[in-house]
Amino acid sequence: MHNQWDLSQEQQVREKALYQYLSAFEYGDFELMGTVLQKAVQDPLLEAMILEVHGYYQAEEQITLRGDEREKILQMVLEHLPSDIREEQDEIAIPPLAVADVIANIEQELTQSVKQEIQMIGEQIPSPLVEYSAQLTAREQEVLRLVARGLTIEQMAERLVISPRTVDTHLKLIYRKIGVSSRSAATRYAMQHHLV
Amino acid sequence: MDEQPAVILELHRYFADEQNVVCLYGILRSYIKRARIVPANDEAERDAAYELLQDLVIKAYELAEKYHGVGLQAWLLCIAWNLIMQKREKLATRNKHEFSTHMKPDSSLSENVEEVVDDLIMPGNLEQNVSMSVQFGAAFACLSPDDQRILSLRKYYGYNYKEVACILEITEVAVRVRTMRALNRFRDAWNAQEGGKKGESNA
């Protein structure tokens, strides 16, 4: 005969808590559910067990999202993120900054000799850079810069504190805007436009 | 931009992932279904879950600094739970109707049915108490063959969830849910037997 009591004491407590949660959930006993959820905040294993069980219930009850519903929900969540976070998350267009303005800003902090050099460079900058500034958002420029530096999607996600999926979305938009279809072409574009 | 507290970034990462949001919304839908705070129809439940998710996102960022746990998703469910409880209280006040005990089973076995069954099955216990043994047998006989099988495997043979899952060729989580349901049905049958005994003694 097997012995189910071979489980560690911690696991037994967990099993019991999950059982209570399940039972309470089925009966709609929210008071008891709350107690177990509070335990799960401090116990990732219990949390994982609860989430797994909910996956089962969702499949059993056939809880699905309609196509428009999914979009609506994702949009709503995005809108409710704090504004400083939202900037990180989404491509909010910033007014295009002319190269001349950038140079003028830097110029104030530089010595005369460097100023002359910058002026010469400024005159040599090809016009597509202005178009490029108008095309890509600040966030997209940042992503493109990281692509050119050879970072993977995961590394970019980590660096920009966004999900890999969001990075992927940014990349697709960038490719479409600059008319390329590969990382190498995007890298070449970034180099041509002095992003790296 | 100022440095964000770690929890804000964790929340941000969580909500930025579509899969997380969809999964969370699914759980909220099933909460709403059981909370009985809206009429039991699909459209009302969808609307209520949407509203709950909206409140949850706002509240999560408001309370972020108070979060010191390790289970972010459980913490979010705690917030959802709180929001539901508030809605239930409001409704209860308005309708003068108590939700929390509406469907809660009222019986001696209700709270610890699993422990009581474990105790009963311990070697020697049923043999020593003939009347309890009869009641146990009668209650067990009321269960469906599936319920009997799963309870036998779990409680009599002592297989763990994983082993029962292998034997019955279902998932481990399905074993958990079905065991819990079988135990609840056992409790109801047990209580029916107990009610019957009381009736007999009164007569």
Provide structural commentary.
The complex is a heterodimer of chains A (196) and B (203). With 196 residues, chain A is mostly helical. Chain A has two domains: 10-60, no CATH class; 99-192, Orthogonal Bundle (Arc Repressor Mutant, subunit A). Chain A has twelve helices and no strands. Mean pLDDT of chain A is 76; it is low at 91-95 and 127-134. By secondary structure, chain B is mainly alpha-helical. Chain B has two domains: 6-95, Rna Polymerase Sigma Factor, Chain: A; 113-202, Arc Repressor Mutant, subunit A (Orthogonal Bundle).
List the helices and strands and how they pair.
The complex is a heterodimer of chains A (196) and B (203).
Chain A (H helix, E strand, L loop, with lengths): L8 H19 L2 H12 L2 H17 L6 H14 L2 H7 L9 H9 L4 H13 L3 H8 L2 H11 L4 H8 L3 H15 L4 H10 L4
Helix pairs in contact in A: 1-2, 1-3, 2-3, 6-7, 9-11, 9-12, 10-11
Chain B lengths: L5 H11 L1 H18 L6 H22 L8 H24 L17 H9 L3 H4 L1 H12 L3 H12 L4 H8 L3 H31 L1
Helix pairs in contact in B: 2-3, 2-4, 3-4, 7-10, 8-10, 9-10
Mean pLDDT of chain B: 81
Fraction in helix of chain B: over 70%
Shape of chain B: elongated
Largest interface: A-B, 63 and 67 residues
Level-2 CATH architecture of the largest domain in chain A: Orthogonal Bundle
The CATH topology of the largest domain in chain B? Rna Polymerase Sigma Factor, Chain: A
SSE sequence of chain B, one letter per element? HHHHHHHHHH
Sheet/helix structural class of chain A: mainly alpha
CATH superfamily heading of the largest domain in chain A: Winged helix-like DNA-binding domain superfamily/Winged helix DNA-binding domain
Please state the CA-atom Rg of chain A, rounded to the nearest Å. Answer: 26 Å
Q: Total strand count of chain B, please?
A: 0
Radius of gyration of chain B: 22 Å
The CATH topology of the largest domain in chain A is Arc Repressor Mutant, subunit A
Describe the global form of chain A.
Answer: elongated
Percent of residues in beta strands of chain B: under 5%
The biggest sheet of chain B, with number of strands, parallel, antiparallel or mixed sense and barrel status, is: none
Domains of chain B, number:
2
Count of alpha/pi helices of chain A: 12
